[in-house]
């Protein structure tokens, strides 16, 4: 699958583009089942493969009923230790789009991957940020994020929100607001636009596109799998990542 000229134009203009039906229903169901297996095992205190796990900072973050134990917020690095997740991340249709959006990359690396669980009634908000404030991939056009909707993402359950065209602002200075979160020092950077998508759709966004998500105030989870790719010819200045730690996809 390759992006049409109209889709590429939207990406260049807005810094993101939606691609529906990117993952077939049977594959998506297997992704859901695998994520559920990992989270249920973690919540029960059982060993969960080689995946690192983060919990919600506040179990009442979205105004729901407080619980004794904070629910899980995020899973990190599913691809490195799991053949099934690796096969989905290496889907030729996904990689063809990644190549188009990373300067026609011949060699594609997986920089990192993470599942945002955003559980019902308590999934916390993610503040406005640029991915490259964390990743430091250069040039900026040599990386892209594929944000795959594992569940339907709606405004009520915390769909992605973007500032169209913000990738043209360059890398904006960010400040640390928590151990895990950065956000721009400046305000009034543009109006955020909600981008609800059905399950199985993906949003590809530029590493400089400003985006956020609100808390989940619905009775439904809003799980999403973010796959961060880079052209192998790029460089990264992140102190936390080196090319030797990344996985070659193509």
Roughly what percent helix? 10-25%
The overall average pLDDT, rounded, is 91
Q: Mind summarizing the main beta sheet?
A: 8 strands, antiparallel
**Overall CATH class:** Mainly Beta
Number of helical regions: 5
Name of the CATH homologous superfamily:
q2cbj1_9rhob like domain
Shape: globular
Gyration radius, in Å: 17 Å
Distance between the termini: 15 Å
Walkthrough of the structure:
- This protein is α+β, with helices and mostly antiparallel strands.
- It has a single domain (5-248), classed as Jelly Rolls (Sandwich).
- It contains five helices and 16 strands.
- It has helices at residues 5-14, 25-43, 83-89, 92-101, 132-135, and strands spanning 16-19, 52-55, 72-76, 108-116, 126-129, 137-138, 143-149, 160-162, 174-176, 182-184, 193-195, 202-206, 211-213, 224-231, 235-236, 247-248.
- The strands form four sheets. Strands 1, 2, 3, 4, 7, 12, 14 and 16 form an eight-stranded antiparallel β-sheet that branches. It has a four-stranded antiparallel β-sheet with strand order 5-13-8-11, with no helix packed on it.
- The longest helix is centred in the first third of the chain and has 19 residues, at 25-43.
- The model is unreliable at 59-68 (pLDDT under 50).
